[in-house]
TrEMBL record:
<dbReference type="Pfam" id="PF07509">
    <property type="entry name" value="DUF1523"/>
</dbReference>
<keyword id="KW-0812">Transmembrane</keyword>
<keyword id="KW-1133">Transmembrane helix</keyword>
<keyword id="KW-0472">Membrane</keyword>
<protein>
    <recommendedName>
        <fullName>DUF1523 domain-containing protein</fullName>
    </recommendedName>
</protein>
<feature type="transmembrane region" description="Helical">
    <location>
        <begin position="149"/>
        <end position="169"/>
    </location>
</feature>
<dbReference type="InterPro" id="IPR011088">
    <property type="entry name" value="Phage_phiNM3_A0EWY4"/>
</dbReference>
Length: 213
């Protein structure tokens, strides 16, 4: 039973961390090589990772989607989709995918004369499911070694930690004030009932011994 409880706790935190890693914004410093628009088919598990203009899960079979191709300083390829999140989840309230695409196109460059940009995004790149991270914004930076602090992610984690701490403290106080005394009363009641049962059992045993003489 202890193993099952620990496994459930570990699984819970894995799900929470995966959810935060997917949802919170991240920053990549890349060189944009191309931007384009492509008709995308939605099917299977990947349909849950696409959004419509209103931010809801994609319900259509296919539609046009903006894409941004790029490369890191070491040559690794990074491909982003560029979709509005609208009023849906994650709550980035992004309605300017066309503007982001225009900026990305303007900042595209070649390896001989690179222009380095910071792409803020959320999501994962899973090639076997054709899932792409969603670009939130694109801006030029000084070079490939520039350090960008994920302030939005840090602030979000601090706020979530504060909320979790407040809930845990209040739950602990509530448990100490209401639940623990109730459990103590039940425990004392069970002990008292056990004592009464023991006394009656001894009396009954003595009575049987007396009648058997």
């Amino acid at each position: 039973m202890r193993f099952v409880t620990r496994a459930a706790i570990v699984l819970f935190w894995i799900v929470v961390l995966a959810f935060l890693h997917y949802t919170l914004p991240q920053n990549d410093v890349v060189r944009i090589t191309d931007t384009y628009e492509r008709r995308q088919d939605f099917g299977g598990m990947s349909r849950f990772f696409w959004t419509r203009a209103d931010g809801s899960t994609a319900a259509t079979q296919n539609r046009d989607v903006f894409f941004i191709q790029s490369r890191r300083d070491g040559g690794a390829v990074r491909v982003y989709r560029n979709e509005d999140t609208g009023w849906g989840w994650p709550p980035y309230f992004k309605f300017d995918s066309s503007n982001v695409q225009a900026v990305a196109s303007d900042l595209s460059s070649t390896a001989a004369d690179p222009t380095w940009v910071a792409v803020s995004h959320y999501g994962w790149r899973l090639e076997f499911l054709s899932i792409y991270p969603n670009a939130l914004s694109v801006r030029a930076v000084e070079g490939p070694d520039v350090r960008i602090w994920p302030w939005r992610a840090i602030i979000t984690l601090i706020v979530l930690a504060a909320i979790f701490w407040a809930i845990w403290v209040r739950w602990r106080r509530f448990r100490q004030a209401r639940i623990d005394p109730m459990l103590d009363d039940w425990s004392e009641g069970f002990d008292a009932a056990g004592d009464r049962f023991g006394r009656r059992r001894r009396k009954l045993r003595d009575w049987f011994r007396g009648t058997g003489r």
